[in-house]
Amino acid sequence: MWTGAILTGGKATRFGGQDKGTLVVEGRTILERQLSELSRIASETLIVGGGTPRDGVRLVSDIVPGRGPLGGLHAALTEAAFEVVVVVACDMPYVSAPWLAHLAALSQEADAVVPLTERGYHPLCAAYTRACLLPIAGRLAQGRLKMMDALADFKVRVVAADEIERFGDHHRLLANVNTPAELGGLALESHEL
User: Fold this and answer.
1) CB of 13 within 8 A of CB of 83?
2) Mean pLDDT of 44-66
3) Which of 51-55, 87-91, 130-134 shows the lowest per-residue confidence on average (mean pLDDT)?
4) pLDDT at res. 186
5) Which range is least confidently modeled, 63-72, 130-139, 174-183?
6) For strand 2-7 and strand 44-48, is the pairing parallel, antiparallel, or unpaired?
7) Which of 16, 26, 132, 151 is most buried, by CB atoms within 10 Å?
8) pTM
9) What's the burial of 172, exposed, middle or buried (CB within 10 Å: 0-12/13-18/19+)?
10) Which of the 8 DSSP states describes residue 46?
11) Closest Cα to residue 23, out of 174, 171, 177?
12) 8 A C-beta contact, residue 8 and residue 48
């Protein structure tokens, strides 16, 4: 049994402060898409960092505010009912239940399960166990907030691009929407498919 956690709360300055989970991709908001996929594999779902109450979803605030994604991960691991937390950034429209379940299942091998592609590590679409909680708390206390650096504190199971491809195109599964141009690019890609 796993917890699913959607990390929100970023400033989204390139979207004029709009909650990126409310962006519509292929007729549904990113948040609706994520909740649908997580509901298929997670025993509980958290929205960390802000949001609107929804049935069957628990809203969680950062315990240490203003610490970015690492603070969100800390809150998710602290509040989760289960040992394993599958974390997804709120701007990733194409995560799928089978892909996320694979990440969670691999957590038996390590403290954290993190995809690695030609673009680097993807720590905001990953699975973490409670073994990560103490090192993360230490980093928060010291103001060392980079997610990438925190990976050095864990036993990490890397999921390479060729393994990801079993679940779909890794560019699509790990796509995120950081700018209006990227959102427009997703719409163009979906019409080409």
Assistant:
1) no
2) 92
3) 51-55
4) 60
5) 174-183
6) parallel
7) 132
8) 0.91
9) middle
10) E
11) 177
12) yes
Q: Are 42 and 101 in contact (CB under 8 A)?
A: no
Q: How many Å apart are CA 16 and CA 87, to the nearest integer?
A: 25
Q: Are 99 and 174 in contact (CB under 8 A)?
A: no
* β partners of residue 58: 46
User: Rounded CA gap, 30 and 10, in Å?
Assistant: 15
Q: How far apart are CA 34 and CA 97, in angstroms?
A: 9
DSSP string, 92-131: -TT--HHHHHHHHHGGGG-SEEEEEETTEE-TTEEEEEGG
Say how far apart CA 93 and CA 31 lie, in whole Å.
Answer: 8
DSSP strand E in the chain: where?
2-7, 24-25, 28-29, 44-48, 57-60, 84-89, 112-117, 120-121, 125-129, 156-160
Domain architecture of the chain: domains with CATH: 2-192 (3.90.550.10)
Residue 159 and residue 115 in contact, taking contact as beta carbons nearer than 8 Å: yes
